Amino acid sequence: MSRREVARLLVKVSGIAILAVALARLPGDIRAFGDHLDFLTIQGVFGDGEAIAIAASSSLLPFAIMLISGLGIVWISGHFMTAVRSDWIYFRRLETILVVVIGVYFLADGLSDSIRGLALMVSFIIAYDRPFTDLFSPHAGDFHVLGGVKLIVGFFVIIGRKGIVAARRRVDAWIRVWSCRPE
């Protein structure tokens, strides 16, 4: 097995892992869709079409985001690695690609959490006839903090991918130096 095939396999396995996370969350998302739909129709503020759209955006849209990102990584793995001319893929480049895949996972998960929280907050605000400034209240922060942190982490992991790989290599060198020293 060549290094290019190993790189393609690792990226594809990462995409499949993201797909597995999305599929593992699907039963809970379907249950949340039904619960949110029941809540919206019981309140009587929304029509059937509006209630379905809001419930789908809060529970099924995050699933779709994770599914699309996982499928995208699996699809890109074949095309991206085929575009590499030589069979020699440096290990550092492979590490960089895998760090980007981790960053894409954090971005997709953070975006899905943010959309879920925003859709839930908007539906609660409209159902209970509250002002839209409640989106920025301390109670709304619970919904958005986790998604925002994941988005920031994903963004910085992608932007600082080469620094992360260099730092990991530097830590390995420090461990080698400290393990060889007599005490």
Describe this structure in words.
With 183 residues, the chain is mainly α. It has one domain (3-180). The protein is 83% helix and 0% strand. Helix 2 runs antiparallel to helix 3 and helix 3 packs across helix 5 (161-180). The two termini are 43 Å apart.
Provide the fold topology:
Blueprint: H1 3-43, H2 48-82, H3 91-127, H4 141-159, H5 161-180
- N- to C-terminal separation? 43 Å
Helix content: over 70%
Name the shape in a single word: elongated
Average pLDDT, rounded to a whole number, is 79
Low-confidence stretches: none
Alpha plus pi helix count: 5
Q: How many separate structural domains?
A: 1
Q: Strand-and-helix sequence, N→C?
A: HHHHH
Number of strands: 0
Largest sheet: none
- CA-atom Rg in angstroms: 22 Å
| Percentage of residues in strands | under 5%
Alpha-beta content class: mainly alpha
Task: Record keyword descriptors for this entry.
single chain, 183 residues, mainly alpha, 5 helices
